[in-house]
Write a structure and sequence with these properties.
Elements lengths: L4 E3 L2 E5 L2 H12 L4 H15 L9 E8 L2 E7 L31 H12 L9 H9 L5 H17 L6 H8 L10 H12 L3 H4 L1 H13 L5 H6 L3 E3 L2 E5 L2 E5 L6 H11 L6 H18 L6 H7 L2 H10 L17 E8 L2 E8 L9 E2 L4 E2 L29 E4 L4 E7 L4 H13 L5 H6 L3 E3 L4 E4 L5 H9 L3 E4 L8 E8 L2 E5 L7 E4 L1
Helix pairs in contact: 1-2, 2-3, 2-4, 4-7, 11-12, 11-14, 11-15
């Protein structure tokens, strides 16, 4: 049985070893947890490019001497791409130019560093640039994902616009030293001039390519993008507190699930039904431009009590209007004064299958999460989509710090389950991450990991749940936790990937 790791001064926890070491290097240079988080995030665009890149979105929760700050950098849809453009398609396509929204990660790195960073901004890029230009050996879980993605993308992407993408990531032996030289050059340009990504030379390069190739993002789209400071929301339950960002991320689903379940009789069945009710209610109303009144209505405590009362001994069949896929990286960093929860993603693995030639910039396909029917999340120009990304943060009797479980619509489910494992079921933070998970798909379907308790599964079947045992590790998310305690820091990392903790 794995146990939490301890540190006196500083800690980095993430899904890939090179990235964790990059964060540690910032601590060794005298940086703080924000410097370490940004360096880790930048390095993950290189070493776990299956899930995120320079063309990603990013979100963060930062605690500075106990004060919570939220930062959202999620791009909007193109102003000159109308709903009518999709009229013959039924849904926003996964690949190509139509699902691309303005990338937000670069703006988050710069904005977060300006407010809380200690080291020079360029220093944060050094490990990633070295790895991309000199090469690195791909970590085992990432390599497995790359090989799976290569088979999917090479079959699906036959149009000429996808050739730069295929050449960038798959035109080399991924079992050998892996290089991303264009990516390295672009990171060097961003390190020296991050604003150039939105208003300068890099933006011009991207926009010119879109004009030539049939894309939609313009100078105006890039120039209007901003990272938004937000106040994290929270719910108290089972002796602790869970913090999430307001939409357009889906963190409020985890808060709603907790609030419903704490008013229900404790059982695995009712835990799952609480989550289902939170998800169904959320997907009916959530969209990327939600107002405070809409959020308060969804999180209303009296409504949560009423939802708890509706739960019976039988599983309820709910419909889900969203399709699902994922591809995300999460990291946590901490020192004695600052703790950071940061998540970034291209969505659906590598994203849109579009790389701007000569830059290594793989663009996200976040627009694929828009709906084309009459719904609050219906596509519109200049709109943020319902977003799956959600960095979490927890207060517990043991300590406080970042919690994250990445993976599409698994994210609120992961936060909910890991929080309950630790706070309600009394597991230490490593056991809380390692415990077998379930994934609510839609209707009565429930995917579970192979090591789930057979007796518990039998009880769920009797309650009417449609149980599917799945060995698709990525379906169940990958998480990290760091808690600041009275004695220092403790951390836990994920068994379902190349989870790594580095510390001082």
């Amino acid at each position: 049985m794995r146990t939490p790791q301890k540190a006196r001064h500083a800690m980095v926890a993430t899904s890939e070893p090179h990235a964790a070491r990059a964060g540690l290097m910032m601590f060794e240079k005298g940086g703080n947890a924000v410097d370490a988080a940004i360096a880790t995030a930048i390095t993950l665009t290189v070493t776990e490019n299956t899930s995120n890149g320079i063309g990603a979105d990013a979100f963060a929760i930062v605690s500075v001497k106990g004060k919570m700050h939220g930062l959202t950098s999620s791009g909007k849809s193109p102003l000159n791409l109308s709903l009518e453009t999709f009229s013959e398609e039924g849904k926003v396509p996964r690949f190509g130019f139509k699902p691309i929204t303005v990338p937000g990660a670069v703006k988050l790195w710069k904005t977060l560093h300006e407010r809380f960073g200690a080291l020079p901004f360029e220093t944060l890029f050094e490990p990633a640039i070295t790895l991309a230009s000199d090469g690195f050996y791909v970590a085992p879980t990432v390599k497995k994902g790359m090989k799976r993605a290569q088979a999917i993308y090479q079959k699906a992407l036959t149009d000429a616009i996808h050739q730069p993408f295929l050449k960038t990531f798959f035109d080399q032996d991924i079992d050998a030293l892996y290089l991303l030289k264009d990516h390295a050059k672009t990171l060097d340009r961003i390190a020296k001039d991050p604003d150039g990504f939105y208003t300068g030379a890099l933006m011009e390069t991207m926009v010119d390519y879109f004009k030539q190739s049939g894309g939609y993002l313009t100078k105006e789209d890039f120039g209007l993008h901003e990272a938004l400071w937000q106040t994290p929301l929270f719910k108290e339950a089972f002796g602790g507190r869970l913090y999430e960002l307001p939409p357009n991320g889906q963190g409020i689903v985890a808060l709603k699930a907790l609030d419903i379940y704490q008013h229900a009789s404790p059982s695995l069945h009712r835990e799952i039904e609480s989550l289902k009710r939170a998800f169904v209610a959320g997907k009916k109303v959530m969209h990327g431009m939600m107002q405070d009144t809409e959020i308060k209505r969804y999180l209303d405590p009296e409504d949560s009590k009423n939802e708890a009362l509706k739960i019976t001994d039988k599983a309820e069949d709910f419909a889900d209007p969203f399709s699902e896929d994922h591809g995300t990286v999460y990291l946590a960093t901490g020192d004695r004064d600052i703790q950071v929860s940061l998540i970034q993603s291209n969505y659906m693995g590598y994203g849109s299958g579009i790389v701007v030639p000569g830059t290594g910039i793989a663009l996200q396909n976040r627009g694929a999460n828009f709906l084309l029917k009459n719904h609050p999340n219906q596509y519109a120009p200049g709109k943020r989509p319902y977003h799956t990304l959600m960095p979490g943060f927890i207060d517990t009797p043991l300590g406080s710090g970042p919690l994250g479980v990445m993976g599409g619509f698994m994210q609120p489910q992961g936060h909910f389950q890991v929080y309950l494992n630790h706070l309600q079921k009394g597991m230490n933070i490593q056991a809380a991450l390692d415990a077998p998970r379930y994934y609510y798909d839609k209707g009565l379907k429930l995917d579970v990991e192979p090591d789930f308790d057979p007796r518990a599964l039998e009880a769920l079947k009797k309650a009417g749940h449609d149980i599917h045992v799945s060995d698709q590790t990525g379906l169940f998310g990958r998480g990290q936790i760091i808690l600041k305690t009275k004695d220092g820091l403790i951390g836990a990392t994920e068994k379902r990937c190349d989870g790594t903790i580095e510390s001082l």
